[in-house]
Each structure stands twice: as C-alpha cells, then as structure tokens.
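Researcher: I'm preparing a figure for a lab meeting and need a structural model of a single chain. I don't have an experimental structure, so a prediction will have to do for now. The sequence is pasted below. Please return the structure as tokens so I can convert it later.
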Amino acid sequence: MQEQTGTLTPQPPLDMVVDKTAEQGITAVLAVIVALSAIWAVVDWRRSGRPLGVVLMLAGGAMMIFEPMVDTVGACWFPSNSWTAFSAWGRPLPVWLCLAYFVFFGIETTVIWKALRRGLTHRQVWLVFCAAMLGDLVFESVLLIWNPYVYYGYQPLMLGKFSLWWMAVNAATPLVLATVIFRFDAYFRGRRVLAIIPLALTTSAVVNAAVGWPSWLVINTKVGWLLTQLGGLVTFAAAFVLVNLVAALVAKPRAVSAPAPQEVGHARA
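Model: Understood. Here is the structure written out token by token.
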C-alpha cells in the first residue's frame, strides 16, 4: 500500500505497470468469451422471442460506468499503462475489464433469471449466490497471478492478493438484478425491455452501497487490524441479509407432503 504525507486516504500505487503480454492474453481470452456469449444471447433471443439476454449483456457492459467510483472507495487500482477503454475519476479502466462486465454482470444475470423462472427453492437461491461468489473468487484469483490490477489500502479479509469482501458484492449484484426482472417480468416486455439498462445501473449502485459500505469505511480509515477485518465481515453479513430477502421474495414454496392415511380400526361387536 502506498501512503503519502498529508493525504486523507490511502493512495494507489501510481507507478505500477502491467505486463503487456499478460494483458494481451487476458484481453484475447475475454474477447472470445464475450463473442461466444453474444452468440448464445442472440440464439436465445431467436428461440424465446425475447431479447433479454442481449439487453442484459448491454446492461452489464454499461455498469462499467460505476467502476471508477467503487474502485475509489474500495481501493482497487488498474495501472496507467493498461490498454485503456476510458478514464474517470482520474482512474484508467482497461479494455479487458469492460469485456468481463459483459459476461459477469450480463450473462450471469441472464442465467440466474432463467433459473428463477424455472423455480428455485430457498436453499437453491443460496446455492446460486455461493456459486457466483466462488466464480468471482476463482476468476479474480487467476487474474491476479499476472497483476493486471491491485487492491490497496487497509483491505479486510485478504486471501493472497484478493480481498474477499468484493466477492459478496459482485455476487449479490446479478442476483438482485435478476430478482427484480423476475418479479416484474410482465413489465419488461416489448420496448420496455430496454428499461433494464437503467435498472441495471441503479441496482449496481444500490447493491454496492448497501453491501460494500462497511468495507469502504475501514479500507479508507486506519482503525487497526481487528476492526478492519470486522468491516469485511459486516459486508458479508449485509450480503447475507440481502440474499435472504431475495430468497423470501422468489423462492418457490416447499412441497407439503400429504399426511399418511390413518388406519380405521374395526369396531368391536
């Protein structure tokens, strides 16, 4: 972590550079995944008659608007020599990250929405959330081998180079978005399906703030190791409350087994 005298919050490592060969490889792999995902979304549109998968891919990409904001409070830095898609808040955002958004927040939300339409139990909703967290953990842990970005500041719950609290936020966002679309499915028909794009942006902002704020607080405040870890745990607790609310809204009721027929005794003469 880089700290500068006179600054109020931890400062990013401005002199960090990314290995260009590694970045090119990451970008190429994600470009292929996005292309395959786009083909799947178009095929699904033709089969179902609904362009929801395509719209959600676009919505997922649009969520990149908030990346520089959450990176500022969540202390994530992408090197300035990255192949930059755009810069905001004084932060460069690489092309490969934009590609990842199309899949992680676009296609993943589509898959969760489809699962909700088929029907999920309370337990299965939790399994979906845990699977999304695991996916983020694996994805970022692999990426961080090549150091295309870094988590700095007083990060809680570090596992290697990955700050675990991020996976709670990143998993809750597509789950909540899919839930809102599922609950108001009849509304998002015809041209109104495009309303999913601003809805996705709003959901991203709300979930990041609702779940991430405890970690944001300790990341940017020197409160000691114990309280820093506690901030990360409170983020997980907030995510768990949110997932429990989602499950209460969308989980299909448990099948109630019929009572066993009672034996009727023969009356004595």
